[in-house]
Amino acid sequence: MNKKLATIALAGALSLPAFAAHFITIGTGGVTGTYYPTGGAICRMVNKQKAKTGIRCSVESTGGSVYNVNTIASGELDFGISQSDTAYQAYHGEGKFKGRAIKDLRSTIAIYPELLAFVVAKRSGIKTLQDIKGKRINIDVPGSGTRMTTEIVLKAFGIKKSELGKVDELSSSEGPTMLKDDHIDGYFAVFGHPTANIKDAANSVDIDIIPIQGKPVDALVKKYPYYAKGLISGTFYKGVTHDVPSIGVKAVLCTSSKISEKVVYTVVKTILDNFEAFKKLHPAYKTITKKSLLDGLSIPQHPGAIKAFKEAGLL
Predict the structure, then answer these.
(1) Do 307 and 214 have their domain in common?
(2) Which of 37, 176, 211, 279 is deepest in the core (most CB within 10 A)?
(3) What is the sign of the dihedral through the CA atoms of 200, 278, 78 and 76?
(4) What is the DSSP string of the chain?
(5) Helix crossing, 215-223 with 145-156: angle to 10°?
(6) Are residues 232 and 266 in the same domain?
(7) According to the model, what pLDDT value does residue 4 have?
(8) Strand 22-27 vs strand 55-60: parallel, antiparallel, or unpaired?
(9) What is the pLDDT of residue 17?
(10) One domain, residues 132 and 209
(11) What domain range includes position 31?
């Protein structure tokens, strides 16, 4: 090699980074939902550190929880957002995953709560969950996540469906219209908050959201590891003037045990180190805390995530 070529080769070598870039992808959900902007927010924060870490992050719109868990298992996704109950069923081979447990699935952080909201018309006179007796209530379609959680909660509070004045079994998407047309007094729905569904109801009817709290909720959280308590902010919906305690699942950032400790550690540490900035990226994060990122982790946590939380003094 002549001197000129040797000089060019040396200059090219010196311009290369000291490490090869590592590309990761986060599976989310539909572009209009909360999972997609959540994945985007995480990736933007990770990519700001890419010169130092060598990790580059991209987000992918997907079919949601079940798709993400299955695609992590197949090795096509590095991370994916899933409801905590879906992650639990996948790891244990239950429900939709019966007979095919995904034992490599790991949790990292539980990002924000998807809480059960009991939305009522103020004209109904419903002030507490016990006031539901004799009222017209929509409990969602059989087999839905809302229906499952609603039935578990009612049972925990000793309320039988036969004690309701009328039971409707339509999708929670019908709730606002049914409330507006005075077909029901209230409806149950599981959402990440704020949601357009309840905003629509609040713009048509004077509404309230009823607290779901107390010893029955404490017992449920203890019994079902995928449930967690949370607050629906009183600033989210017109007419609701108080923060509303409730129970629900968590949106969990999942990964595989096959993903390196360094990569998972970097992603989780980036979120913890920039937590206040992260909270401002979406209204659904308004009520979360660093400690709440550990609530609702229904499957084993990845060692890289554990390391980051320990360094932050949270474990």
Answers:
(1) no
(2) 176
(3) positive
(4) --HHHHHHHHHHHHHS-SS--EEEEEE---TTSSHHHHHHHHHHHHHHTHHHH-EEEEEE--S-HHHHHHHHHTTS-SEEEEEHHHHHHHHHT-GGGTT---TTEEEEEEEEEEEEEEEEEGGG---SGGGGTTSEEE---TTSHHHHHHHHHHHHTT--GGGSSEEE---GGGHHHHHHTTS-SEEEEEEESS-HHHHHHHHHS-EEE----SHHHHHHHHH-TT-EEEEE-TTSSTT--S-EEEEEEEEEEEEETTS-HHHHHHHHHHHHHTHHHHHTT-GGGTT--TGGGGTT--SPBPHHHHHHHHHTT--
(5) 130
(6) no
(7) 41
(8) parallel
(9) 45
(10) yes
(11) 19-112+250-311
Angle in degrees, 0-180, between the axes of helices 303-311 and 261-273, rounded to the nearest 10: 40
Within-domain flag for 14 = no
Residues 6+ apart with CB under 8 A from 220: 152, 153, 156, 227, 247
- Number of compact structural domains in the chain: 2
Pairing of strands 244-256, 79-83: antiparallel
- Amino acid code (one letter) for 165: G
Q: What is the pTM of this model?
A: 0.79
Residue 30 shares a structural domain with residue 93: yes
Q: Is residue 296 part of a domain?
A: yes
Specify whether 164 is located in the same domain as 204: yes
Quick one: pLDDT at residue 290? 96
Q: Is the dihedral of CA 80, 82, 88, 93 positive or negative?
A: negative
Average pLDDT over the chain, rounded to an integer? 90
**Could you tell me if residue 89 is inside a domain?**
yes
